[in-house]
Design brief:
With about 120 residues, the chain is an all-alpha fold. The radius of gyration is 16 Å and the shape is elongated. It has one domain. The protein is built from five helices and no strands. Helix 1 packs antiparallel against helix 2, helix 2 packs parallel to helix 5 and helix 4 runs antiparallel to helix 5. The mean pLDDT is about 95. Its main location: membrane. It is a multi-pass membrane protein. It catalyses: fluoride(in) = fluoride(out). This is Fluoride-specific ion channel FluC. Keywords: Cell membrane, Ion channel, Ion transport, Membrane, Metal-binding, Sodium, Transmembrane, Transmembrane helix, Transport.
Amino acid sequence: MAVGGVLGSLGRWGVGLALPHRVGDFPWATFVVNVTGALAMGLLVAFLVDRPGVHRLARPFVGVGVLGGWTTFSALAVDAVQLGAAHHVQLAVLYVAATFLVGTLAVAGGMLVGRRVWPGP
């Protein structure tokens, strides 16, 4: 799991470099990693649940390690607080709501697509 966490964290760091933002701007990097992580989790669940022959450590390696390192609730919280402190309260509320709404839809979409691509046993 630790190697997965390193991989996910390095990927998130790379997205942060590619999509930097100043306090008061929409934090696209954190939004992108959290939503894509939610999509990947939906795909992972669709692929691994009730699938015979999958190694028992695949789920924790990818789900906890890679996706745990990739996604970041703490950065979402810091970004929201910083937006509020910079007097961008409406943007902070939009950011948090959009992350949870789009993230939830991404998980559902990932599961739907995954179940069609990888039908269960």
